[in-house]
Amino acid sequence: MVPKPGDVLHVNRQASVQFGGDRALIFRVIKVSDQPTYYGWIWLTGYVLDRAGRALDRREIYVQEAGLQLADPPPAVVGQPRKPAARTTRRNALRR
Questions:
Q1: How many other C-beta atoms lie within 10 A of the C-beta of residue 95?
Q2: How far is CA 62 from the centre of its chain?
Q3: How do residues 40-64 score in pLDDT, each as one tens digit?
Q4: Which of 60, 62, 70, 93 matches a 20 to 30 Å C-alpha distance to 35?
């Protein structure tokens, strides 16, 4: 599988031995490098995600394409609604 930016992957031992066991991670791809590598291997840039889907760390990883698996995307992170910014006109700013 050739990933594309936006894909959420489960990266484990099948992708590279360094991600075996408790070192497996959920990874959101932001860039697939076109740098030449060994056949079947690729460099990916992206974010390690926590269980809630929040980015914990930006990383570049070297993995085997054949070992990559699409992960179920984590639930969307919903924040608090923002308050509208107070509008200040030049006239109001000068009065103060």
A1: 7
A2: 15
A3: 999 999 999 998 999 999 999 999 9
A4: 70
Residue 75 amino acid letter = P
pLDDT in tens, 7-40: 999 999 999 999 999 999 999 999 999 999 999 9
Q: Please enumerate, as own/partner, the contacts of 68-72 that have beta carbons within 8 Å and a separation of 24 or more.
A: 68/1, 68/3, 68/9, 68/10, 68/11, 68/14, 68/15, 69/1, 69/9, 69/10, 69/12, 69/14, 70/1, 70/7, 70/8, 70/9, 70/10, 71/8, 71/9, 71/10, 71/26, 72/8
